Amino acid sequence: MALKGNCIHIKTKDSETETTTITEKKPDGTSEERTVPVVVEEKTNYTDVYVAVKQVDFFDSYFVNESSALEKRTSCFFHLAAYKNKTTKYNNQEDHLFYESLVLPELNYNTNVYEQIYAFVKTLPGYTEIKNDL
Question: Which of 39, 49, 97, 124 is the most exposed, fewest CB within 10 Å of its CB?
Answer without folding.
Answer: 39
